[in-house]
Amino acid sequence: MIYPTRRAVLIGAAGAPLALLAGVAGEGLWLAGLAWVLVLLLALALDAMLGGARDGLSLIAPRAPLAAVSRDGSANFELRFSARAPATLEAALGGSERLGLLQDVLRAPVEHGLAELCFPLRPQRRGPARLETLWVRWTGPLGLAWKQKIFALDLDVPVTTDLRRVRDEAVRLFARDAQFGAKIQREVGEGAEFHALRDFQLGMDRRAVDWKQSARHAVLLAKEFRTERNHHVILALDCGRAMSEPLGEAPRIDHAINGGLLLAYACLRSGDRAGLFSFDSAPRLSTGALGGPDAFRTLQLMAGRIDYSTEEANYTLGLTALAGELQRRSLIVIFTDFTDSTSAELMIEAVGRLAERHLIIFVVMRDDELDEMISAEPSTPEDVSRAVFAGSLRRERDLVVSRLRRLGVHIVEAAADRLGAAAINAYLDLKRRDML
User: Fold this and answer.
1) Is the pLDDT of residue 72 over 50?
2) Does residue 370 register a pLDDT over 50?
3) pLDDT per residue over 246-255, tens digit each?
4) Which CATH class is domain 57-160?
């Protein structure tokens, strides 16, 4: 496709009044206007001929970018001119709105016949997406004619969970083991599994002294324990309507998935087994407790299948179905949020039945926007109403949390970006206290 640039249009528009005045001034001068049009058309044709050929432009092996929710990424393309090339070109990329393209039109230089395009993107929602079309245009040396070529991409770009954040946080939390290298070790110390007897030393817990064996050998001996392994840890994710609402830069469910995967990594690293369970109005996904070298990769793939939902979470059905699947006592980590007293009442009832047999960690996200509404100094009547409403929501949440604590449920409340670390600390604390 070849069409005039803005410069050509302005030049043509500037010459039209002059040609009209010349035609009015004299009968033979109207030919000057015709000559002006012909000169402009010839200049357009010459500029189009001197510009890079459309047939000589090719797109080199386009690849689908890696896209993760709430993480800056880029869609990169490389173009090549086989013959004469322009100095610069402009490009536009068409794709799904889910990808969050940040720049509509990109201008790039052409060096040695090659041009590199880098379109920044920041996806806000997980799910399937596509890059559909790449438009490229450039001008000749006179800047009078645009030459455009369209490339059909048809690239599938699934927007996944931000696993880089999970990996970086896991490396930070477990970096203390890096200097020792990979090795098999026994975690000796606190735990419930008996390991061996050793001489009692100053500073050891006196409750660990084995008095019978000490009397037999005439020396103080203490019991040494080994940390128990192979516990079942189930990550129950509420993916209902309330969890699909945004909190900060991403929906709540994406924060919960990131925190859950980080906790799963810690559990698998500690020798325990981890599994995923998600529900909204009905159970949607269940992996069971997984272990082994491929367990974390499987959990990553299954977490990518958790979709956003517009349905209310049915805690009774979801948690009852989870209880029916578990054949042994497990640690159940529930990632959820609640918005009204009715759903909270049903949730407390369902969690209470589950806590009779299993150990429960209840994870909720701290809503900084709600806290800001409560603490902000009001300047209008609307600010007062907003603060009163936010305060009532906060009191209802605190009441629900206190009732859950009385049921023996362990509560973790943290900011969205610290959810995984807070859940790991709670898990390690329970493991240290031999409550699993």
Assistant:
1) yes
2) yes
3) 887 788 999 9
4) mainly beta
At 429 the three-state DSSP class reads helix
Domain ranges (residues) in the chain: 2-50, 57-160, 188-226, 232-432
Q: Which residues contact 433 (CB under 8 A, 6 or more apart)?
A: none
pLDDT band at 363 (very low <50, low <70, confident <90, very high): very high
**Structure tokens of 418?**
């610290």
Pairing type for strands 145-156 and 57-59 reads: unpaired
From 411, 424, 102, select the one nearest 258 (Cα to Cα): 424
Eight-state DSSP code of residue 12: H
Phi first, then psi: give them for residue 329, nearest 5 degrees. -60, 130
- State the Cα–Cα distance between residues 323 and 330, nearest whole angstrom: 10
Could you count the other beta carbons within 10 Å of the beta carbon of residue 5? 18
Helix (DSSP H) and strand (DSSP E) numbers for the chain: 11, 21
Q: β-pairing, 331-335 with 359-365?
A: parallel
pLDDT of residue 403: 92
- What's the rounded Cα separation, in Å, for the pair 142 and 8? 9
Residues 94-111 have pLDDT tens digits of 998 888 888 888 999 999
Q: How far apart are CA 427 and CA 227, in angstroms?
A: 14
> What number of CA atoms fall less than 13 Å from residue 28's CA on the CB side?
0
Average pLDDT over all residues of the chain: 83
Segment 2-49, tens digit of pLDDT: 878 888 888 777 776 766 666 666 666 656 667 777 887 888 888 878
Determine the angle formed by the axes of helices 295-303 and 252-269, rounding to 10 degrees: 170
278 pairs with which residues across the strands?
A: 237, 285
Nearest Cα residue to 343 out of 315, 320, 370, 322 = 315
- CATH homologous superfamily of 232-432 equals von Willebrand factor, type A domain (3.40.50.410)
How buried is residue 214: exposed, middle or buried, by Cβ count under 10 Å (0-12/13-18/19+)? middle
User: pTM (2 decimals)?
Assistant: 0.69
Tokens at 183, concatenated = 């090795």
Alpha-carbon gap, residue 321 to 329, rounded angstroms: 15
